[in-house]
């Protein structure tokens, strides 16, 4: 059985160069590859294009990469929690492509499936449609969107095995599995790493064929993006 394990996050990301296109999994701050992001922050690289559902927050996740000026362009859907992102966008320091969330998910999925383009009604008649092909189907206009692929996809799973098979938990499944399929090289960090064959095949979300490197993560903070409390009942 092929063993795809590497020692740690530093080993996993050591060959990511400046100018690379990265996909970073997660939904908000749920299921983000915390260890890999920390390891990237130790590297002297810049000019990255980052594809992620969100841009982290100012002091956590991709927000730290933005703060260090590692990111040239963000391709995202939801970016409302990051003041540094806003500052760089308004000052012209950061290129930004904002995409409807469903379209972003489908563009990534298409990249993993080898589908170069598809048509969607989302964005027709808005700035999203500028410069893109429109086509009518059954009396309704649809917008052509192209696939998204990456040099490196960096994902975080709840459990994985040494062959690269992955199981995600909860909302971490929203973007991680499809990004794992769309990277030329996919790096997976997991909360629990087990020997190949120990996972129930019926529970695997991402087959190991999509994963090139896997390691056991440590010290996960699992930050809550918006903490709320319920008032006392009278």
UniProtKB/TrEMBL annotation:
It comes from the Bacteria. It is an enzyme of class 2 (transferase). The keyword Chloroplast does not apply. Gene3D superfamilies: Glutaconate Coenzyme A-transferase. It holds the Pfam family CoA_trans. Signal peptide: none annotated. InterPro entries: 3-oxoacid_CoA-transf_A, CoA_trans_fam_I, NagB/RpiA_transferase-like. Its EC number is 2.8.3.5. This is Putative succinyl-CoA:3-ketoacid-coenzyme A transferase subunit A. The gene is scoA.
